[in-house]
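Notebook, p. 212. Picked up where the previous page left off. The plan for this session was modest: take the two constructs that came back from the sequencing core last week, fold each one, and keep the raw output in the notebook itself so nobody has to go hunting through shared drives later. Recording the first one now, exactly as returned: residue sequence, then the structure token string.
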Amino acid sequence: MRATNRLSAKAAAALGPGKYADGAGLWLVKEETARGKWVLRVTVHGRRREMGLGAFPAVPLAEARKHADAARAKVRAGLDPIKERQREKREAARNLHLLKDIALDAFESRKAELKGDGKAGRWFSPLERHILPKLGKVPVADIDQADIRDCLLPIWHSKAETARKAINRLSLCLKHAAALGLEVDLQATEKARALLGKPRHKSGNIPALPWQDVPAFYDSLNDGTVTHLALRLLILTGVRSLPLRFLHESQIDGDVWTIPAEAMKGRRDATADFRVPLVPESLAVIEAAQAHARDGFLFPSVRKGVISDATMARLMERREMEARPHGFRSSLRDWLAEATDAPHEVAETMLGHVVGGSVERAYRRTDFLEQRRALLARWAQYVTGQSGQLVRMAY
């Protein structure tokens, strides 16, 4: 009888339950006539090993022989074919875990803890703009400090704050990959920082318009467009750009605008909605904005969604102004400090800042709504050129 190739395809299909040798260690083990499995017996480093080569008849005889020949070649090379197959599977699995997929998965996992479930895209954008174009298609297990350094070097000094956010997000992605059981270098980002050195550029405060110059700028926002109206309400209320841009008619009840907690920076508690008193000038701006409303949103963009922060910023850039929209919060805060005697806790609450420790906040239940209303009314009078008198608070 032949030492190898003892079986034929026709005979293998007809054989009943049992073990049948094809030769040179290849066996067909049948549980019943219709199905079975291929097993290769080899000796590696003096130890007998059995290696499965697939199910029969899904793997036909000819294919089983090819697999067996490849495994025997590994044995002749001094390798364990079973361990080599496991290694190859790990390599294949690793190559499926590209950084772009890990980054998206990490983003999805963190959406619940981000403002508005991350719909504004600020968490993901540093990765999307500065990391993924170069490293997105690289297996996460292959990313090292040199890759990260080369990726961020162009912006490390010129856009230090953006680079810092990008490398921090990347570090979270690597930790996410490790939590998934992938082999990654968790120290790669710290090593990259060492290679990049300390950023020369220091981020500063967002430029603000001096409060003395706000009335003239407010007066120039007079064409009734969405951008002009949004900037006017931003100035009048002192809120951040995000909740203003996503202002919905349902959030307004009479002369109070309630901003949902998830839209307030630093207010993750579901009960920490923030009330903004709406003075007559603010209500007039809102009434004008309702003519532009789409799906209930008062400040829609031209195509879809709401206007972006960049839209308002570009208006100021075109006028060659250094100040930016967010800076109007500083303008208001400086006016409160220099032109009123508003208590610190009232002035800080006007900007939505958390004031005092947890115990103090637990006992202080007020949000100073009426005190803030009086201050915002005088602020509105000031920015519209009606008054610049000192405001004294009544207690």
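Okay, moving on. Second construct, recorded in the same format:
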Amino acid sequence: MKPQDLVVQRPEGLYCPPGDFYIDPWRPVPRAVITHAHADHARMGNGHYLAAAPAEGVLRARLGEIELQTLPYGEAITHHGVRVSLHPAGHVLGSAQVRLEHGGQVWVASGDYKVAPDRTCDPFEPVRCDVFITESTFGLPIYRWCADHELFAQINGWWSRNVLAGRASVLACYSFGKAQRILSGVDPTIGPIIVHGAVRPLNDAYRAAGVALPDTRMVTEVKDRAELRRALVLCPPSAVASTWLRRFGESSTAFASGWMRLRGARRRGGYDRGFVLSDHADWPGLLRAIGATGAQRVIVTHGSVPVMVRYLQEQGLEAEGFDTEYGDDVVEADQSAQEPAGEGT
């Protein structure tokens, strides 16, 4: 460990030695700073949680009763001499970058982030620092996202064609973040919108935080079965492979994920359509975000770590990787696979 390092690797997770706390630990610790409420970054069992104020509802929806302290974006507290503040990461509702200042050094741990606009969360805020800890989930040049208006035109067009054909439009997506972003962008005049039981409590948390979402229903609340043939159905990926899907009769299935950029990913999943939609930064977004920090040292975590490290080194930066237990979109798929497929969940 270098004397000036404000974040180091430990078996429990990323640790701040002078502050004696962890950032998104993957094993239970006394004090944890949480960047966002996805399952690989916010785990149960910690003694004390610190998170951005907008994340409170989704954290409690996912973790239940926890000892949670919240901090408005940009407001700082000092713990054991370390000045800590949280800044928008643009990933999902309440996602934050953790800024640490101590001993003349400023470090930022970004968690997961995206730089593209998103109506459902605060936009990514570049934070100047000496050392930047970045994800690299989609850290390959092949990953480049289209503009949201193009993407939602594709989704609305697919849904409209299915309405004309008399079949339901079943769109698999992760219950937290992706589902709400889709809801914010689709055209609710095309037909009714039905959500799986795993999606509903997260929608409630978003609405409670002031995020505008169109009206949605559970399938058990639909009395006229003809409405199901006009519906857009949002559900976790696990539900597509379950008996729950039979309720809708004839349907067209699709999956919304950044992994749909890869040829063959849709086919392997057995979906009729794939929509390239991610809550992570694409390759240009990652490079733009890293550059905006002004950091001369960059630490790369989960994703395409060797590629990103090598590229940054070629650009003259001091770059290295951290081994973590963070996942990517697949972690949320695993999470949803454990959620009951029954409508009452």
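Notes on construct two before I forget. The domain at 148-275 is CATH 3.40.50 (Rossmann fold).
Flagging for discussion at group meeting.
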